[in-house]
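Lecture 7 notes: from sequence to structure.
We start with the chain below.
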Amino acid sequence: MPLRSLFLDLNAYFASCEQLMHPELRGRPIAVVPMLADTTCCIAVSYPAKKFGVKTGTRVSDARRMCPGLILITGRHEDYIRIHHEIIAAVDTVIPVHKVCSIDEMECRLLGREREPDRAMEIAHRVKLAIRRRVARGADCLTCSIGLAPNRVLAKVATDMRKPDGLVCIRQEELPHRLTELVLQDMPGIGPRMEIRLNDRGIRTMADLIDRTVPELVQAFGSIEGEYWWHWLRGNELERRESRTKSIGHQHVLPPAQRNLHDARAILIRLLHKAVARLRQNGYLSPTLCVFVRCMNEGPGGRWGGKSSWERKLSLGVPTDDTLEFVDALAKAWREAEAALSAARLLMVGVTLVDLVPVIGTTLPLFTPARPRQRLGAVMDKVNSMFGKGTLYPASMHSAKDSAPVRIAFHCIPDLDLPA
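Predicted structure tokens for the same chain:
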């Protein structure tokens, strides 16, 4: 069975972008953070910092202790998205990008003679060179690891086998025995909780995983995912069924100066403004708004306990994409939040629109006061697209109009053209 997939994983991407834009940071231990506060976590770490044990998710106060010379950089997500598109364009000069998997991962499909190992390796080297020349302008601070394999899953696994700047090819004739040198959590999608589940069913090593039959794996995983894994480990190409969007939302960690009820409310409306604009852009309606406020506990250092201090699920009755209707629903619920959170130490807020339905095929009521306001939402999007984000917005978010900037979520690349 030939090679089918070339998978590219950019190394320490956010940190590498910062070093690309700021040459004085190259070769130094840096960590990209959402804000300059000891209570937050590192969202990207350069390789010099990783040598001290600092990694993504490390608390900033711990990272400072582990690496005394650590340089903290507040993330500039718009720049990371811009460079991401430059990288895609560079890769496209060598081989078409088949699928963008995340901000720092993409897959290219190998066709015809490209599937021959020597040819595939040559293409991979050319991809690395294109990124270095076209994006990094010859600098060695923006590197990638590339995996070649008979399917996307194993190609992704191969990218982690040699970092940074690696190139690993897993051939069909090496499967599945070459995978026995790995551990369960080297497989994408098998995290700590899934590993515990597999361990409880007698699967503790990759050899155990490989030896199980399809029915045994379906039972171990508790879903058809087990059947997928049986095929992937043997080099077979089996794609998961694509699922439609089920929710749209945003959340934001409040900076220390905004950890109060007044600013939290304004930032929630700012997040809601963005979420409903995305709802319209993607062609969906929603009848339900979920809102939450999380607080810091009173433990040592004010560490966050991870539980919602206040949350509500608000039903609007009928599916809508009317920004002001969602704002009204939030305003009514916020009175309760103010009473419940009057003495709380706020940390994070978030909104999620759920139970989405496509606009196409949905029958909306003809005679309702909300219809003109729904048209107002489309006008607001058009004005913001023409004259810039923040030109037109609900007055209740005025004090937070510059808060909650663009953030890159896991497997989700924000659209810089979004009019909110």
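Points to note: Residues 298-306 have pLDDT under 50 and may be disordered. Residues 289 and 338 are 18 Å apart (CA to CA).
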